[in-house]
Design a protein that fits this description.
The protein has 280 residues and is of the alpha/beta class. The protein is built from nine helices and eight strands. The protein is 40% helix and 11% strand.
Amino acid sequence: MPKIQLTPERVGQLKQKIKKSKEIFQRAYERFDAKDMRLIWSGGKDSTLTTWICKQFCQENDLAMPRAFTIDEGDVFDEIDEFLHNWSKEWGVELDWGRNEDVLKAADYTLGAEVDVIDLNERNRKEIKRIGLDIVRFPFEAESYYGNHLMKTVVFNMYLAENNVKAVFQGLRWDEQPARKNDAYVEETEAQDLVPAHTRFRPILHWQERALWDATLYFGIPYCPLYERGYRSLGARTTSQIAAEGVPAWEQDLENTVERAGRRQDKEAQMERLRKLGYM
C-alpha cells in the first residue's frame, strides 16, 4: 500500500473530519445497541472508510462493533468479494451477505436472461408493481432501474425486517452524487408497505473524494485493488468502467472530473426515483 506525505495542516484537517464522523457514531450509540445496528459495507472506498472510522470509535470507547451487511446483486467483482472476506476477518467484523435468490434462480444466475414475472415469489411480484411496472417478463440486469430495486433495495429491506435492524450506517458523501447533496447526517425512515422503519446514519457526508484518498493512504486504510487499476467508482462488474487505465484513482483529476462517470448513467439519472423507493 503506497504511503503519502502530507503537511501537518492537512493531517489536522483529516483528523477533524474523522472527529466529526465519530460524533455521528456517538449519536447512534446513544440511541441504539450495537446488535440493532448495521454497517453497510460494499467493499468500496466510502463504506470502507466508514467501517474503519467505526472500528476506531468502538476501540476508543470500549464498545462492541455492529455487524456489517453487504449485497451481492448478481454482477459483482471477484476482487470486491475477496477484499470483503479478507478484511472482515482481519478486522473481526461479522459480515452478512444478502442476495435476491428468487430473482437469480428465475434468471438461471445468468445476466441478460429473460425472467418471467409469474416465476417470481409473491414479494418480488409486489415489488415490481410497487415501482410501477406492468410487465410479464424482463431481462436480468443488476444495474437497471428494476434491477437496482429488486437486487438491492428489496434485499436491504428484507434483511432489516428479518433481523429486526433498527439503524444502519451508510458511507455516502455530499460531493459524490447530485441526489445526495442535501442528505442529512441522520434520517428517519418511516414504516410503509414492504419497508420497515429504521434510522439511517451517514458519518462521512462532509468528506470529499480527495480527502478520502488522502486519509486512506496516510492512515493505511485498506482499499480494493481495483482502484489501483484505474477504477474510480465501483458498481456492478459488467457496467463499471475504468476511468483512466493504469492510473490509480488517487492520482486522477478528482477536482475537475465526475467521480461516477464510470457508472451506468441511466441509473445515475434515476437516482432520485430509486432513493424514494428506499435505495441506499
